[in-house]
Inverse folding.
């Protein structure tokens, strides 16, 4: 009997880990549809309340917690992330036609925390075709909350040939 | 004993749900290879017999069930989907060099039905490079059949800046 | 009791298969970050020691096991794969800004072997945007080793409109 109980306990642990992996896939694959449809609240709710989204050149957090708009900027709270989605810069991008696509991530789970590494691409409508405006190296740091997995910090760094995005990609892969 | 039986029953349910998620990943990741290799029958077999593939501007189903060819069109049966793959429009695209790429989907499972939201990209050979010809918002509606998951309806709507593709992306994400 | 044992045994088999699927996702999603960050050893360690990476036009293995550099070439060992990553051709690409993105694969598991089919894209920095330099049909052949899944052979064939990449895509999808 105890043998079966051990096997069931181990199975429960393995299934929980698989569910964590899939839940993080689900969270990351919802980012694009939420931000491209312009749902500011639902996008922001992917993060914890004081979560950080640094989309390049953001530097240190702003004491006032305001979003820094533009191609390089950052948001340092759910409220600031929602402001970014509502802001004129992002609104223009999605009203011209845009797709924020998150590729299959590599995920390292450690109990109630996780790190994912993925590529993001921002395609923008350009006449009869689309241009690839940004290809980013992404590091996502997650924490398990009572409501499920949430983003604590996402860093998105354009692959411009410099060391920073290359180091960011490497940082999330073990071995 | 009943405690262990309960735990095993719960595990069976959780594992079935994970398998559903993976089976839908498998179905969606087979679409591109099948349509780019030109296998009309195998592509059509991803759908149920009266399944719908609306790739933009399709409007209402045709009473005659014929495929509407071109950049905007639709097919309203397995047979019409196979006709689309065999048709001169699609054949030209794949003989010039093309990749129909389906991104990591967000999936909402509800028993024997499921909805997936994903981005599609159609890359076409263009000299020494490829151009991104289409970036689409996609909603896939699935039904579990005796032979496994099948597509009941897929809507692919170019991200042209209008409200329709943005609403389509939002429709498949809960919360 | 034996009924419960049977159910637990079946669950163990199903969970192992799901873990295999996820481990292969993890391996494939680590390729891009490793090769774009320039980690030659870690990239090569994804393959078995005599593993093959054929990135187009490679033809038959070289008796001397040396990498054939350039847009079309091949490497026929871990050592040669590491040499490719360290070589001037690849180093120039990543220092100009590049993303090697592997899409969601379709995977066919057969015990200790597996075949995956996926699209690769190589995005290269081009002024304020990126160009899509390569879109490849990919076939990955894996083997389970004592240290986990490893690549025995990867074939990456540009979707140039010819029959070869179309056949390659079709070869890895059952049905």
């Amino acid at each position: 009997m105890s043998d079966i109980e051990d096997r069931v306990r181990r199975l429960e642990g393995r299934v929980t880990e698989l569910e964590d992996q899939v839940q993080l896939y689900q969270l990351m694959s919802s980012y694009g549809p939420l931000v491209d449809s312009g749902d500011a609240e639902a996008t922001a709710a992917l993060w914890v309340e004081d979560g950080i989204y640094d989309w390049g050149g953001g530097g240190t957090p702003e004491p006032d917690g305001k979003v820094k708009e533009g191609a390089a900027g950052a948001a340092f709270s759910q409220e600031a992330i929602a402001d970014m989605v509502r802001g004129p810069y992002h609104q223009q991008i999605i009203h011209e036609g845009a797709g924020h696509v998150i590729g299959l991530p590599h995920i390292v789970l450690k109990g109630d925390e996780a790190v994912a590494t993925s590529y993001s691409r921002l395609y923008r409508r350009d006449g009869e075709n689309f241009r690839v405006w940004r290809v980013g190296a992404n590091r996502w740091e997650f924490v398990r909350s009572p409501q499920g997995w949430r983003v604590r910090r996402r860093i998105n760094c354009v692959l411009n040939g410099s060391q920073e995005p290359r180091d960011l990609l490497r940082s999330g892969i073990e071995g």
Observations:
- The mean pLDDT of chain B is 94.
- Chain B touches chain A at residues 4, 7-8, 11, 14-15, 18, 21, 103-107, 117-119, 121, 131-135, 137, 158-161, 166-167, 169-170, 172-173, 175 (CB under 8 Å).
- The two ends of chain B are 38 Å apart (CA to CA).
- The beta strands of chain B are 47-54, 74-75, 98-102, 106-110, 113-126, 129-145, 148-158.
